[in-house]
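Anyone have tokens for Chaperone of endosialidase? Sequence:
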Amino acid sequence: MRLFYLFVPLFCLLVADVYAQKNWLPDSGKVGIGTDSPTVQLDVRGEFSLGVLSSKGGQAYSIGLTRAGAQLYGVTSIGLRLGGTLNSGDAAILPNGNVGIGTTSPGLKLDVNGVFRSNGMVTLLGPGTASELNSTTKRGVYIDNGVSTGWDLLTLRNDSGTMMTVTGAGSVGIGTKKPLGYKLAVEGTIAARRVKVTQESWADYVFLPDYKLPSIEELERYIVSKGHLPGVPSAEEVKSDGVDLGEMNKILLEKVEELSLYIISLKKQLDVQQSQISALQQKQ
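Reply: yep, here.
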């Protein structure tokens, strides 16, 4: 009977040891909670909550991990502060959800005091208002895609498609994604108060002594045959290739200068004829 009374407590202790959660609390070294083989100085296997009690007996600060998720709260306005030294203010998460990096008083959902890098896409979404990219240093915005050609440097889009593109080669497309070899390609109408075109040559060669000015008869035959002035692109060419403003201004100036030469020549002929008429009148 004594042996039976001794066996029952030992059996209960054995069952409790098998089904109970194991802890490891040595005099020194690593401590295990929920495990008898801790791998770090404090190894907790399972849910935990670590709190600091206030002077009134209530819980003032708490950090924990449960099945509902991680929790962290305190009595100050900063929910979580991260720093290399005490009160260094390297980063903070406020109770209202604002996150500060390099500051402990973020005024926005993400407030970064310093330079940051993203290896992925950065998406800006606003509640029906315009998103703003602003440089408070008054030095502009610097964009670098890391390559010289092959990839676009900047693309502006809306629901209708691409509105503006800046290629890696420095070409700009407005209303089009493909500048097609031009430094500025615009799909649409341009309004400007002034356009300055730099030309390497101009039409003053018309006034040089060796310039071959077509005769009036040659000019007439060309117009009858071609339907446009010599050196001026036809309507079909303009429709197909467009108009180079600088080159076209030079061509038009060439025609104006040729007309000036025609007028001067005709004036000389009229002067001769007038002299002849005056001479005939004096003989009568």
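The first strand starts at residue 23 and ends at 24.
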